[in-house]
Every structure is written in structure tokens, then in C-alpha cells.
Amino acid sequence: MASGLSKFTLGARLAEYAELVKFEHTIFALPFALSAMVLALPGSQWPSAWTVLWVVLCMVGGRTYAMGLNRLIDAPIDGKNPRTQNRSIPAGRVKAREAWLLVLASALLFIGAAWQLPVICRLLLPVAFAILTLYSYMKLFSPLAHLVLGVALGSSAVGGWLAVTGAITWQPVVFGFAVVFWVAGFDVIYACQDFEFDKEAGLKSIPVALGLTGALRLSRLFHCLTVALLVGFALGYAVGPLFWVAIALTAGMLIYEHCLIRGDERNPIRLEKVNEAFFTINGRISMAVFVLVLLDKLLSGLPGP
Predict the structure, then answer these.
(1) Which of 57, 92, 267, 289 could form an SS bridge with 263, CB 3.0 to 4.6 Å?
(2) Are 156 and 163 in contact (CB under 8 A)?
């Protein structure tokens, strides 16, 4: 009985920590990091299992560090926002001390995993930590927070490339910037939910700076840049035919995302559709790109007729 209760308690605590950092949102960045690893190696070459493991641990550690820190810094604000006041820290389900320990452990995991990768990954660790930390404070003084979040996730794609090549070239930069604008675009949409609260609280966001209509226009522009950068990457690099399918699917799903949330002149955005647009569609985009990149690599290794 006691053993069963302790297992339940442990499971409940782990679930609470996972909810604290929205662990399921790892699906946004991880597939792009894995896609970059596959794309970086020509022909039928594959990254080693150890490299894949260290990259995955880097992703989990880095993202958990950033999200945990963000939740800690945002806790006083989240407690005042009706949409977020039930989050783990303001609701009291997770103590600040526990969250800080999780942040510290995640930072150590990130450092330890990166140390197993090429030297350039170790050298860039301070830059990575600076980006991951900056996002948590950015909304307090600049609406560019959405782009900083994009850079944080786009860096993961660049990091995946560097993990297998050990060298920086133009290709991972272009691929990474495609991710930057993809993330910034959907984060602008997500921020529209807090437009009224952020304006009253004096927080900075693109919806507050441009209004809902202007913010949605900029989000569309960001997503157009995403598709354009993916096309530019494909034109300048030896991609397989399925990568072009991935670009077409990405463009189609982004168009659907914007159609889904489109409102009218009185209400520019359908807020009830934001979560579906934010998580469901963008999760499908990242997974679709990864699966098609993987299939391209598998097919390229098959013998010809």
C-alpha cells in the first residue's frame, strides 16, 4: 500500500514537473535538430547513435533550463493573468526551490551532453545559455521576445548540424533562420491571447506594439520568410525530392493555420482556435519535415534499378 502510494506520488510529481516546463512542446524543436543532423551528412552517411543521444539530451536539458527559468521569472505575472494563474508555481503545486533545482539540473545536463560533441559545440555553450536566458527577460523591455524565442529554437537546428560536422557553414544558418521565423510567427499568434492583459500590465509583445491586426500580418510575413528560406536552402544544397514535398506541406499547413485563426474586422483573431493552431498544426509541421527528411535519406541509400 505504502509502495503504491509512493509510486503514485512520484509519478504525480514528475507529471507536475513535465507540465511546468511543457515537456510535450519539445516536439517543436527536436525534430528540426534531428532533421539538421540527417541533412548535414551526404549520401548514405548517418550520425552515430551516440551523437543522436547527446543531441537529444542537449535539447531536453537546454529546453527544460529555458522553460523552467521562464516559469520562475514569470511566476508573479502568471499569478495575475487569468489565463496562466493556475500554472504550477503561482498555483503552489511546485515550489520555487524545486523549480530552481530543476533548472540547475537541466543546465548541468545540457553542459554535460554538449561536452560529448565536437569542440565548436562546447565553445558555443556561453552563447546558447545567453540566448536561452535572455528570452525570459525580453518581454519586460522589448517586443522582440518572439524573435529571441525563434533564435533559441533555430539554434537547436544549427546545433544538430554542428554536432555531426563540427564546422559552421551557410547551410545550417539558412535552415536555422527558417526555424527562427517559423517559431516567431506562431509565437506572435500565441501572444494574441494575452493582448489585453499584456497591455494593462505594461508587458512588451508584438500584439501590444502593433495591435492584433498588425501582429497577424507580421506573423504571416514571418511564415512567408520561413518558406522562402527553406526554398533557398533546398536550391543551394543537395536535398532529395521529398524535401520539396516537406516545403509544400509546411507552406500548406501554415496557410491553414492562418485561415483557422482568421476572424473579422471586429475580432481579427479567433482566440478559441489559437491552441489548435499553436500546438497541433506546428507539431505536425516539425514532425512532417523530420519524417520526410528521414525518408529521403533512406531512399537515397537504396540501390538503383
Answers:
(1) 267
(2) no
